[in-house]
Amino acid sequence: MSDTSTTPVWTAELSTPDAQATRALAARIGAGLRSGDLVLLNGELGAGKTTFTQGLGVGLGVREGIISPTFVLSRIHPSLSGGPDLVHVDAYRLADAGELEDLDLEQDLDTSVTVVEWGTGKAEQLSASRLEITLVRDTGSTMAEQGGEPVLDFSETDVDEPRSIAIAAFGTRWKDQRPF
Ligand SMILES: Nc1ncnc2c1ncn2[C@@H]1O[C@H](COP(=O)(O)OP(=O)(O)OP(=O)(O)O)[C@@H](O)[C@H]1O
Ligand SMILES: [Mg+2]
Question: Measured in angstroms, how far is the CA atom of residue 50 from the centroid of ligand 2?
Fold first, then answer.
């Protein structure tokens, strides 16, 4: 018997040509989310996790202004449409699941969609089901494969480039359910 907390119920591989397409994809996914849903976002610095979260916010219909919450570990974006709020967390500076517990996210879980940047390995315990989404900057991996210097400078250049976006769904919430 497979454990749905460690074996995905489905996976999908997508790609987007630019930041606006990443937001549009995330908006479609956001429109299919409901209270209690958990999304873990992974990928290097500058991969597009916050950009993706902005799209989720559009799809959910929450108040705008999603920015990197790096200095404030979590922010609540209230719904403007009577739907779930968006709780946006950045776990980059958190050492482990214990430090994430200290944020007391549990109290908002039932009324919100919770999105955790750098969440894998730290935030799975927040819910029995989750989407794990990994963004990869194609240019960097191509250069590394070609034997060039790997791109380590993920500075905020705003230059549009393709991203590979892998989605893995865990838990019974996502059995036979695809939010896009
Ligand atoms: N296809 C794309 N998808 C998403 N973002 C893109 C794409 N192409 C270019 N970008 C740009 O890459 C940058 C991604 O920055 P963003 O803050 O979303 O990354 P992040 O993964 O949240 O970084 P951090 O790890 O610092 O939190 C933005 O400037 C965005 O405009
Ligand atoms: Mg970010």
Answer: 4
